[in-house]
Request: fold
Amino acid sequence: MSKRLILAVLTIACCFALAACNTAKAPAEAAIKAADEALAGVKADASQYVPDQLKGVEDALAAAKDNFQKGEYQKALDGAKDLAGQAKDLAAAVTAKKDELGKSWQDMSGGLPGMVEAIQKRVDILSKSRRLPAGLDKDKFEAAKTSLAAITQTWTEASNAFQGGNLVDAVGKAKVVKDKAVEIMSLLGMQVPAAAQ
Reply:
């Protein structure tokens, strides 16, 4: 082949490549914009309820933007085209997580105050008693009283978090209260409710 023919073929190939890149630029830009807008609408809740899932979508969007900046429009388009849908999936995951946490809160808030109250009554009775029951020495009893004060405070914080709309914090603190209440009840020789086990 002559040099002119090779040069002409290369020029035509470059033109096609350039045209292909330019045809992918507008769709890539639109896909990135759509993903950005969809993500903005769900980001606050997703960061609280499904942070790992959110990170995956944010990382994919950052990679698409990076490819766009490098002029790799087709790669940017391939990376961004499904992200708006994934942002909608995030919204569904947030709703599911909120429902799950709401149910957990309902279950725990129904029984925990009664457990804490029962522990308080037992501590009051044992405080007035001259002798502690077998298997419970003074150090263990003092530790139980200290733990009771701590879980009472934590339960107040959990309730405040729930009223403030922070389900993640409310349920997390309620679980701490439940675990510690079970521990204290066992220490004091009390019957632990089946629901709490």
About this structure: The helical segments are 3-49, 51-69, 73-80, 83-128, 138-163, 167-187. Confidence is low (pLDDT under 50) at residues 13-21.
